[in-house]
Write a sequence for this structure.
């Protein structure tokens, strides 16, 4: 049986402690307590209780002035690690866990609980002896401790979860806490006086958004429902009652070509999820059709005429034919699963139960793709999400693209696509032969690159290998069952995984790579972070990194790469929940990563920084003001009202949009930032994140060349959304990259320096104003060069091949 230590901070709690300790006896093996300067008998009660194995004491003080809850809880956590418990739970002296919830807690720790997660309990505020608010709030207090862990946040009012447990591993439960802090008017008064003394300037919420004001309606406490699962699979509702399970009929649809070797494994895997299969042989030259027709699991095999290669491959038509044929088996659910994909047995069983008990008949469901390496026990990447499961009904239509589309019917809006924790193993990159064959397949099917800009990543060598983990028992299938914006992510449950990935991209940068990388690896950060360096080109950059920074992850691309490809290569091996891209021209100031991590921890999906100029020449200052007017160090922290120019990200958001475009010399991050902004993700300006930009515009000639290239990038971004005729013949292009835009940028720089710049900035701007205007003209020329030379038609962003 795993051991559990209860961490108990207390001050002047002699009235509460007898009840608190009686409650703790129901579930804990030990108590680590802290008496925070009490003036009553708190310390004596704690010292005399046999369950209290460690008692920390602060000097006596008369009131709550100077109370620092963060440091108190860090002291408790550090003391608890000396006892080496398997789990710890923070519980306050005015909180209780009822006997039935205590029993459920012990059973959960003995079975389904995962080290690496933080678990949330439902906290109910009591008003009187037995009545409480009907709506709880979640408090995350339960986790498996490790030496060296720290809590971070404000001094008061925070979730006491170690910084090395990422948000994606915070899991809600149905376990309940009874909070008695407002049970009587006297307790409410004491509570409010306590917070006013601790926070005289009102920096923190005093009444917890109204929780210290009596609810309009209260309800009596009820026993925990029998059989209610601890993991919060069903949200605020109780578990389904007996008889709620309805076995669904699931059909697996598989388009296959020359897949005879893969099909036996596919048939075994698909049978774990589906009741029947419908297949399509897309003109194979091997025994694909024969293998399918010999299986009793396959209801019908559709056939396309035999052909020698992948020329003319129409994936949309194939999947539409399969969807139409699915009507013959009258399914409840449809699952597209390709011949080189597998759903492991434990994930398949969880998915079947989910479909039987709680799946939404109006939703489509997504799975994370894992690129397997060598065998089914190892993988190297898990960046791609695919949506393949949806309810069947007559008349469904798929999107119109021939290749690289999401096979979800157009009748199911994007707002009804839900992520799951079910995983797909993809065998297409299992070895070098398979990677090469897949690359050749897409080259033959899309020779003009009409559906994807670059297929080269398909044959890229594998990254570091990871061992395939079993599915944790009891893990919810829905990644975010209560739609709180904190999806559970199995990729983040590795306790050794970093919270942040810093990816340094470089191309022929041997002269400055050491300065850039050293500024990253030297960072002191409260969360674990990894450093990834992606190199390309012909000089000694990779050798320098390998020799001087052996602990970093080095990714060497086989040919000179544009920034988007380099970013994507780093993204493919990154494991952090947050990813940032300090290029080889960036030098981080001390504390930059810590400040960035804090901003993301507060919930901001995109975070920008303060930028200092590191190129002290007239052209360098001109480039600085042109590139970073919104990032001047004097600008205060706060939300941005426009898409950010450069930022760090929550990694899964970048993966959702397909990574960075790989055919742009500049502006690849602007494309992603605009896409994320358009999807409703906000950006935060974090003044404390400080970096130095050593731009290459040391001379006027380099400045003009640099901004001509940036202008071309803007032209290509515009072409992403508009046809050339629409841009050139209408006013849109003139407004976006013409003289009005030039004047608008000049005014933006002037206002930014006036508002946020120093006296030195204002003097520098006066000196380089002419260079800035010349660079703006070069940028405008580059944009029009791109617009006028582009063929009529629409350019497509890079997206991973499915």
């Amino acid at each position: 049986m795993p051991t559990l230590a209860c961490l108990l901070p207390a001050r002047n709690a002699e009235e509460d402690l007898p009840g608190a300790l009686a409650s703790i006896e129901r579930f804990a093996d030990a108590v680590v307590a802290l008496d925070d300067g009490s003036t009553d008998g708190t310390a004596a009660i704690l010292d005399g209780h046999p369950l209290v194995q460690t008692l920390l004491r602060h000097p006596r003080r008369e009131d709550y002035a100077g109370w620092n809850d963060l440091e108190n809880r860090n002291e408790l956590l550090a003391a608890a690690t000396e006892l080496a418990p398997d789990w710890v739970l923070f519980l306050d002296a005015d909180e209780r866990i009822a006997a039935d919830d205590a029993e459920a807690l012990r059973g959960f720790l003995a079975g389904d609980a995962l080290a690496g997660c933080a678990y949330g309990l439902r906290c109910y505020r009591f008003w009187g002896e037995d009545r409480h608010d009907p709506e709880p709030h979640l408090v995350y207090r339960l986790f498996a401790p490790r030496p060296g862990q720290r809590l971070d946040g404000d001094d008061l009012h925070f979730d006491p979860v170690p910084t090395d447990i990422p948000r994606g591993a915070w899991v809600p439960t149905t376990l309940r806490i009874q909070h008695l802090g407002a049970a009587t008017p006297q307790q409410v008064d004491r509570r409010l006086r306590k917070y006013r003394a601790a926070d005289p300037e009102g920096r923190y919420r005093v009444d917890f958004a109204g929780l210290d004001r009596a609810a309009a309606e209260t309800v009596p406490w009820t026993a925990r429902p029998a059989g209610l699962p601890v993991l919060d699979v069903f949200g605020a509702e109780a578990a389904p009652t007996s008889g709620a399970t309805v076995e669904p009929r699931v059909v697996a649809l598989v388009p296959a070509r020359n897949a005879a070797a893969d099909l036996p494994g596919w048939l075994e895997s698909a049978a774990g999820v589906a009741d029947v299969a419908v297949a399509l042989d897309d003109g194979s030259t091997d025994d694909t059709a024969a293998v399918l027709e010999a299986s009793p699991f396959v209801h019908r095999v559709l056939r396309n005429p035999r052909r020698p290669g992948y020329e003319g491959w129409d994936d949309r038509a194939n999947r539409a034919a399969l969807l139409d044929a699915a009507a013959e088996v009258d399914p409840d659910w449809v699952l597209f699963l390709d011949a080189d994909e597998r759903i492991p047995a434990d994930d398949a069983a969880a998915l079947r139960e989910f479909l039987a008990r709680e799946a939404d008949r109006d939703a489509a469901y997504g799975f994370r793709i894992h690129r397997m390496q060598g065998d089914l026990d190892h993988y190297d990447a898990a960046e791609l999400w695919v949506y393949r499961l949806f309810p069947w009904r007559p008349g469904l239509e798929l999107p119109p693209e021939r290749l690289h589309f999401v096979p979800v019917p157009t009748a199911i809006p994007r707002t009804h696509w839900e992520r799951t924790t079910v995983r797909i193993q993809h065998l297409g990159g299992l070895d070098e032969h398979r990677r090469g064959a897949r690359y050749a397949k897409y080259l033959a099917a899309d020779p003009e690159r009409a559906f994807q800009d670059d297929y080269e990543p398909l044959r890229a060598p594998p990254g570091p290998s990871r061992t395939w983990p079993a599915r944790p028992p009891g893990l919810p299938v829905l990644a975010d069952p209560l739609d709180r914006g904190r999806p559970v992510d199995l990729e983040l449950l590795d306790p050794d995984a970093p919270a942040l990935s810093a990816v340094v991209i470089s191309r022929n940068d041997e002269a400055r790579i050491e300065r850039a990388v050293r500024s990253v690896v030297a960072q002191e950060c409260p969360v674990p972070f990894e450093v990834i360096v992606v190199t390309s080109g012909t000089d000694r950059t990779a050798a320098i990194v390998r020799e001087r920074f052996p602990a970093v992850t080095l990714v060497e691309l086989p040919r000179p790469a544009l920034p988007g490809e380099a970013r994507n290569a780093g993204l493919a091996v990154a494991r952090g929940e947050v990813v940032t891209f300090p290029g080889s021209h960036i030098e981080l100031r001390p504390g930059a990563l810590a400040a960035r991590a804090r901003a993301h921890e507060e919930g901001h999906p995109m975070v920008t920084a303060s930028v200092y100029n590191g190129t002290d020449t007239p052209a360098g200052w001109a480039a600085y003001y042109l590139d970073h007017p919104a990032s001047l160090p004097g600008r205060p922290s706060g939300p941005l009202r426009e898409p950010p120019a450069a930022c760090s990200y929550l990694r899964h958001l970048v993966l959702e949009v397909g990574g960075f475009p790989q055919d742009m010399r500049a502006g690849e991050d602007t494309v992603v930032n605009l896409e994320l902004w358009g999807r409703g993700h906000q950006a935060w300006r974090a003044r404390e994140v400080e970096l130095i930009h050593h731009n290459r515009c040391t001379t006027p000639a380099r400045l003009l060349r640099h901004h001509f290239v940036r202008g071309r990038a803007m032209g290509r971004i515009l072409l992403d959304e508009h046809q050339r005729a629409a841009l050139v013949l209408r006013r849109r292009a003139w407004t976006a990259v013409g003289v009005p835009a030039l004047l608008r940028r000049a005014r933006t720089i002037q206002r930014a320096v006036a508002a946020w710049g120093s006296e030195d900035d204002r003097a520098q701007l006066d000196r380089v104003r002419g260079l800035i205007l010349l660079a703006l003209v070069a940028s405008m020329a580059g944009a029009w060069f791109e617009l006028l030379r582009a063929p009529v038609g629409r350019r497509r962003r890079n997206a991973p091949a499915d």
Remarks:
- The first strand starts at residue 4 and ends at 10.
